[in-house]
Amino acid sequence: MNVVHVLLLAASASTGLANIHFGAPPPAFDIPTARGAVPLTTLRGRPVVINFWATWCPPCTTELPYFGRLKQIYGDRIALVTISSEPAGVARSYLTGHHEALPLLEDSTGKLSKAYSIAEVPDTLVLDSAGNVAYVSVGGLDWSELQAAVEAALTRPPRGGALKAIGSPGRRLLR
Question: CA–CA separation, 65 vs 49, rounded Å?
């Protein structure tokens, strides 16, 4: 394989987030749950949806109800966490005021956003049941796009070997 081919392959599989790679696990963190915080790795065996958002971001607040809808439709078949880098309490207050019962990780230090190379919000990742990145949306998404990514993660077993990223830059799904 020549250098040009390798560079083209790498570019075609770009997630749009410098530290995030398709077919590999994302940076680890603990997810708050009703039973206490659990490491991201303990959620393997089901897809995980991770959404970075902010209260001041119109596309973020437009798509928040989609994540509530995911919880209603898929229940425990998926895990979900939303992450906000705003000062402590801001995002939680917003969710409460808007009657959105979503799992929230407050990243007020920005440590997790930096680890995931989040430059702007919203950004959404879907991990497959093995804990590897299977889908990334940089920027706002719509319900059908989110649902398709979750359905793909639920119905397709994780694969080894070559991965093919399809879609436009910023919106990629592995096949």
Answer: 14
